[in-house]
């Protein structure tokens, strides 16, 4: 509660929390489309490609103004994205290979430029390396306002082209047959992701930016099968993770905000993977267990009915027919008796009327399935 109250009082904490929330919101919304288009690595490429752009912007201008450096990073990321899309369109190189090569190449160039600046530039290059891991604590009110304006543009364009983005995400061939400019829409969506990267570089940095694009979408995908709900939930989870990371960072000294934001959304992803009702491993395990039990019960009922038709439904014959121990066969017959499907008779068991109807209905269902 104390941290929540500080959120409205402390200027620095408020800026960090708002900046991180905006990053999570924008990254989550755009990441949903990137995930569905199987371009999860694209955000990573854009983030790593931004580093050489930041370094070149500093070399050309000698200025460390955040907006100028982020503009350079955004332009470099945009050029990298267009290059990757061109390679995929004109060559047979697989998508993951093209993205991986671009990621490592641009990041290597960025590290080389950063090292060159640190050792040879006469200006003061201190602080450029913060874009590698982010430095959310340096966010100012003007930065948050800039993030909000960029975020507003991104969300407005997503709302305006929602149907088109949805179509190219699920069935680009059908979109082309309708006459939609799929290439231009893909470039527009990539450009919006570039804007999201520009928001995230100062907060979580180059290395961790990809997580803020993909993790919220991956978590949201576990909870719904509807794109609209997925986009909204992904943005919400990203924003909540941003605020949670900022609050965790403020709870102790020397805790970096960016990594904690990423760890927060990672925790959401892990929880979703296990406990989301639609796809969670926990619920899936329960459903699988229920299915196995139902299948075993159906097999037991059919085996018992087969033996009853020949007048040999007793523990010994059931154990022999199913290849199971005699005590287990007795337990199975006791279970059928408890369900009211069989009843004792001289020398064994016989089916009751409800049990007979159950067995015949099961046989009819199996016959229709086959």
Automatic annotation (TrEMBL):
User: How does the entry describe its membrane topology?
Assistant: Multi-pass membrane protein
Top-level lineage group: Bacteria
Kindly list the places in or outside the cell where this protein is found, as annotated in its UniProt entry.
Cell membrane
Q: What keywords tag this UniProt record?
A: Cell membrane, Membrane, Transmembrane, Transmembrane helix, Transport
InterPro entries, A to Z: ABC_BtuC-like (IPR037294), ABC_TroCD (IPR001626)
Q: Any stretches that span the bilayer, and where are they? A: 12-35, 41-61, 68-91, 97-117, 138-162, 182-215, 227-248, 260-282
One cellular component GO annotation, for this chain's record? Answer: ATP-binding cassette (ABC) transporter complex
Q: Does the keyword Hydrolase apply?
A: no
Instruction: List the GO biological process terms.
Output: cellular response to iron ion; response to zinc ion; transmembrane transport
Per the record, a Pfam family?
A: ABC-3
Q: Cell membrane among the record's keywords?
A: yes
Which stretch is the leader sequence? none
* Family assignment from sequence similarity: Belongs to the ABC-3 integral membrane protein family.
Name of this protein: Manganese transport system membrane protein MntB
Organism annotation: Meiothermus luteus
Protein encoded by which gene: mntB_1
């Amino acid at each position: 509660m104390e941290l929540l109250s500080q959120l409205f009082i402390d200027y620095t904490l408020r800026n960090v929390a708002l900046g991180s929330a905006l990053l999570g919101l924008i990254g989550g919304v755009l990441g949903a489309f990137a995930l569905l288009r199987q371009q999860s690595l694209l955000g990573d490429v854009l983030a790593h490609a931004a580093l050489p752009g930041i370094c070149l912007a500093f070399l050309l201008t000698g200025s460390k103004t955040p907006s100028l450096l982020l503009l350079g990073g955004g332009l470099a990321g945009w050029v990298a994205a267009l290059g990757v899309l061109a390679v995929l369109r004109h060559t047979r190189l697989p998508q993951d290979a093209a993205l991986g090569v671009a990621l490592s190449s641009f990041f290597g160039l960025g590290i080389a430029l950063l090292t060159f600046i640190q050792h040879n530039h006469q200006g003061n290059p201190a602080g450029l390396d913060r874009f590698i891991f982010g430095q959310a604590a340096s966010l100012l009110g003007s930065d948050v306002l800039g993030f909000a304006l960029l975020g507003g543009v991104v969300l407005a364009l997503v709302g305006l082209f929602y149907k088109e983005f949805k179509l190219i995400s699920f069935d680009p061939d059908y979109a082309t047959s309708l006459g939609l400019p799929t290439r231009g829409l893909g470039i527009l969506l990539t450009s919006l992701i570039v804007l999201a990267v520009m928001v995230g570089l100062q907060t979580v940095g180059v290395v961790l930016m990809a997580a803020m694009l993909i993790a919220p979408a991956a978590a949201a995908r576990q909870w719904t099968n509807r794109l609209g709900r997925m986009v909204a939930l992904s943005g919400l989870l990203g924003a909540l993770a941003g605020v949670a990371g900022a609050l965790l960072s403020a709870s102790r000294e020397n805790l970096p905000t960016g990594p904690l934001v990423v760890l927060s959304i990672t925790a959401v992803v892990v929880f979703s993977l296990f406990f989301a009702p639609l796809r969670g491993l926990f619920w899936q395990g329960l459903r699988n267990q229920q299915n196995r039990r139902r299948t075993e019960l159906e097999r037991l009922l059919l085996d018992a009915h087969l033996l009853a038709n020949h007048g040999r439904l007793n523990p010994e014959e059931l154990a022999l027919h199913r290849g199971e121990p005699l005590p287990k066969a007795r337990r199975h017959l006791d279970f059928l008796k408890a369900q009211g499907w069989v009843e004792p008779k001289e020398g064994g068991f016989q089916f009751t009327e409800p049990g007979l109807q159950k067995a015949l209905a099961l046989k009819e269902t199996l016959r229709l399935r086959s």
